[in-house]
């Protein structure tokens, strides 16, 4: 599938373009309409443990009738991470309805937080990802994401603690 994006007003951010692409995919992709789970990954990175994450999240949401969303995103901290987001296809309208708000001062991360809160209020299940993301690539700030096995182990340990804090309500549910 190929998408051509016309030039936009200069003060629109990358986030606006991401929303355009998502809207196009919703409209044109039959596979997207039939999918059980969508994984949106930042284009400059590879998620090396995507299969493990998809399988684990899939087990947690198997019987969700309304829909689900899973992200490392903390919905009340707009600057928090949003490199990867896993969701049921019916979450996309919650995300794309934020499109017209996106500017440099209202980036994709903020739009995602608002979309998560709206979806959860409508009955969607929010799942904190069960494993730390194992990433290959270069970030926006030029940092290299590749981690050593020890760093990955420590990241998983830290993530497990976050999952426990999320489950006991220390982190807001959404």
Assembly classification: single chain
Largest sheet: 4 strands, mixed
Our Rg estimate from Cα atoms comes to 16 Å
Proportion of residues in helical segments = 25-40%
Distance between the termini: 33 Å
Count of helices?
6
H and E order: HHEEHEEHHEEH
Query: What is the number of beta strands?
Result: 6
Describe it.
With about 170 residues, this protein is of the alpha+beta class. The protein is built from six helices and six strands. The strands form two sheets. Strands 1-4-3-5 form a four-stranded mixed beta sheet. The longest helix is centred in the last third of the chain and has 19 residues. It is globular. The model has no long low-confidence stretch (mean pLDDT about 80).
Short description:
This protein is of the alpha+beta class.
Question: How do the strands and helices of this protein lay out in sequence?
Answer:
Blueprint: H1 14-28, H2 30-34, E1 38-41, E2 45-47, H3 50-60, E3 68-71, E4 84-87, H4 92-96, H5 108-121, E5 125-127, E6 135-137, H6 149-167
Parallel strand pairs: 3-5
Antiparallel strand pairs: 1-4, 2-6, 3-4
């Amino acid at each position: 599938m190929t998408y051509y994006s016309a030039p936009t007003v200069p003060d629109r951010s990358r986030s606006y373009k991401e929303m355009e692409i998502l809207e196009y995919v919703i409209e044109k992709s039959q596979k997207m309409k039939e999918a059980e789970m969508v994984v949106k990954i930042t284009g400059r990175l590879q998620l090396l443990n995507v299969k493990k994450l998809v399988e684990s999240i899939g087990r947690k949401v198997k019987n969700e009738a309304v829909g689900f969303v899973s992200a490392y995103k903390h919905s009340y901290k707009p600057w928090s991470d949003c490199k990867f987001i896993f969701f049921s296809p019916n979450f996309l309208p919650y995300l794309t309805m934020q499109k017209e708000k996106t500017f440099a001062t209202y980036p994709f991360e903020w739009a995602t937080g608002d979309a998560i809160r709206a979806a959860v209020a409508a009955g969607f299940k929010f799942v904190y990802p069960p494993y730390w993301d194992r990433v290959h690539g270069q970030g926006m700030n030029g940092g290299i994401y590749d981690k050593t096995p020890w760093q990955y182990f420590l990241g998983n340990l830290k993530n497990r603690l976050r999952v426990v804090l999320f489950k006991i309500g220390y982190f807001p549910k959404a």
